[in-house]
């Protein structure tokens, strides 16, 4: 069983990285569509280059801190019982393994970008990121904690979003000049972060569906009808998040095109206006 903080912390990391990925992709495409290339991470401009690698530091440091919380704080350093891994903290060990993969990705990307010891092309970094998402997918799909009912459905939807992240990052390696692929990757990461938050507020916060409750570290509903209502509510919540993100992306692209737009982007609007007038 998870907790509110256990979902909110990784949700914050995914949300921040995802939103930045979307904005960076929009600006880079609007600035020069012909030279656009997929980036698994995006440098922060300005500040004399001091914040260039901020995204990678957020990924590596954030994953490391969260991993330490899961592995050291949550387990109370009781790793073994009678010579075997503590069965009561298998959940924490699994989360730590997933976070370790994102820490490894962030560290490898930093080494590749800042040193000469590990020069890797962007396509290789995409595949490494896909590996980290695969570890996350396997964690939630084969979780040691049996998720059933409403709790299981929220985690099933999370697994689908993680699978979308895997697909997008692999496509980024195969289609390195595709703007839709890069944009979809940012959208998928953002939705994953938002769904972590939605799960936290619904299962462990004030948005628990009517007729369901968190008791003895389990989410249970008073009747089958109440559970079905909760499942339908989850579908509506996911639809609302997808719609909200898509609307935000369209608005952000309009702003990016007007502020940073390349002449070729503006010409698209000119041609479209002429066609509309005809």
From TrEMBL:
Subcellular location: Membrane
Membrane-topology annotation of the record: Multi-pass membrane protein
A Pfam family this chain is assigned to: DUF716
Regions that span the bilayer: 12-30, 51-73, 93-112, 124-142, 154-176, 183-204, 236-256
Domain of life where this protein originates: Eukaryota
Keywords noted in UniProt: Membrane, Transmembrane, Transmembrane helix
Main location: membrane
InterPro entries: DUF716
Designated name of the protein: Transmembrane protein 45B
